[in-house]
Amino acid sequence: MCGIVGLFLKNAALRPDLGRHLSRMLVEMGDRGPDSAGFAVYRRPAAEGAVKITLFHPDPAFHWEALATAFGLALDAATTAAQRGNHAVLTTAAAEAPARAWLARQHPEVRVMGFGRSIEVFKDMGGPEAVARRFDLAGMDGTHALGHTRMATESAVTTEHSHPFAVGSELCLVHNGSLSNHNRLRRNLARAGIRFDTDNDSEVAAGYFAHRLQQGDSLADAMRAGLDDLDGFYTFAVGTREGFAVLRDPVACKPAILAETDDWVAMGSEWKAIAPLPGADRAKVWEPEPATVYAWGRA
Amino acid sequence: MITVDLEETSVRDLNQRLHDLPGDTNERTWTVVNPGGRHALLAGLTLPLAVTVRGHVGYYCAGMNEAADVVIDGHAGVGVAENIMSGSVRVRGNASQAAAASGHGGLVVIEGDASARCGISMKGVDIVVGGSVGHMSAFMAQAGRLVVCGDAGGDLGDSLYEAVIYVQGTVASLGADCEEQPMADADRAAVAELLARAGIAGDPARFRRYGSARQLYHFHVDHADAY
Q1: pTM as predicted
Q2: Is the same domain home to A67 and A138?
Q3: Which of A71, A203, A273, B178 could serve as a FRET partner for B13 with CA atoms 20 to 30 Å apart?
């Protein structure tokens, strides 16, 4: 069992409060996943030609400023670091491949949690209330966000094994369920150049969608293709720069509920997660059908 | 009328208070506000109470209901009215999967859509859905009637026993051993009576009947090799 939540704001006036709302949603899903929690927030896009790289170091006292300075000098790119808990968001004009290569060489203990112009990814062990507080989720603005509370069934409980998984640029995935063909898929995707950091099944789904998008699929097409290629139980929520999409497997034994008002679209494993949102009482509420892609994005 | 606010009272306390009512109580009309999607609300009621919940409820609301008439003025999560024995449960919004699962009696009304597995293993309950039902509805349904005013998802009535299904709209596919059967006058009368009790408008003449072909659940000596 895990809990997943997603919130897409249609009304720009709510954006300053995105983190506060997502935080409440996440805390409501604490019973479904007390092992670890995480979230991806799409906010404050980096300038044209620049990207944000969310990094994790197990030592909360790690000197991020020093890393940013050395990184900027080595790659000849203007770089800043903004620390949140044991994570930091590096904003840089460096390209992805040399950036990853430098980090892997100079700081093999540092993990890349998210990569893209808008996405920031934070995740850690512990219940959602503690994790949200650690990263000051409530203080974050943004356009849309996904979150996850994990009850591990398939692989270890570590920060790296927590959700969301952000395998491709601007892409992240949260998953409730389990996949049964992830080992073979991981090998195939690795051969196609997709890199994986853990042995977790959900990361393979994230890598699968990232690969399909690289091949030119739209997110909705990639998710529909997943119905044939991903074997197992799942409710997925997948975020991109423009919005997010939800998909349940054809048997649909993992729960999901969707709600929409003029101001927002929300998904949750249970209504409890959506109930605290403003105007939730007047929302249109329904259970998403199996094997059907639901997607929202900015026009 | 007694009003209970679940922002101030726990679900456990509310349920206990309802369970502790004496049979001759005159506290028969209750309203529950701020349900907030909490689970197991109003489980195991055994008295003829009238309880209205204002808002959306979580899992297994009004499970095992006996005699009480429950109205959920919102969406109902997984397994609403699970194992209902008698009385009635009405959902004014949509319902998540497994509505009225294994219900033995009484009436369950979903005014909106019900999701997958509506009436799974029903054992005598009557269910009226104003909208559509999801896949695998009435799976292994043993007794009772499921009336669907909209459409039915795939594998309707799979492994059906003696429950009867009436659908006004389209059926995506029938499950194993479920077949369309002729609508008799008695069927039209049954649909009319159920729609009237549910307070849902509909023309009984437009419904089709689905029932068990009875090929699956009787042991047949010619099939002995298959076991």
Answers
A1: 0.91
A2: no
A3: A273
At B203, which CATH number?
A: 2.160.20.60
The DSSP result for A151-203, as a single string, is --SSS--SSTTSSPB--STT-EEEEEEEESSHHHHHHHHHHTT---SSS-HHH
Considering the candidates A1, A2, A28, A149, report the single residue annotated as catalytic: A2
- The answer to whether B96 contacts A287, with C-beta atoms less than 8 Å apart, is yes
CA–CA separation, B6 and B17 (whole Å): 13
How many residues in chain B?
227
B75 chain-A contacts, CB cut-off 8 A: 257, 271, 285-286
Residue range of the domain that includes A187: 2-45+122-297
Q: Do A271 and B93 touch (CB under 8 A)?
A: no
Cα first-last separation, chain A? 34
Q: Are residues A70 and A145 in the same domain?
A: no
- Consecutive 10-residue averages of pLDDT for chain A (299 residues): 95 98 97 96 96 96 96 96 97 95 96 96 97 97 97 88 92 95 96 93 96 92 95 95 94 94 97 94 92 84
- Same domain, yes or no: A176 and A131: yes
Domain match, A272 and A241 both: yes
Q: Which two tokens stand for residue A121?
A: 């990814």
Distance from CA of B152 to the nearest CA of A (A): 12
Same domain? A152 vs A222: yes
Pairing status of strand B164-167 against strand B143-148: parallel
A172 belongs to the catalytic site: no
Domain end (from A117, A139, A168): A117
The domain total for chain B is 1
This model of the complex carries an ipTM of 0.84
Q: How many domains does chain A have?
A: 2
Q: Which of A184, A295, A190 is nearest to A246 (CA)?
A: A295
Is there a single domain that holds both residue A54 and residue A92? yes
Q: Provide the shortest C-alpha distance from residue A287 to chain B (in Å).
A: 6
Q: Is the CA virtual torsion A228, A230, A233, A237 positive or negative?
A: negative
Domain extent for B39: 2-226
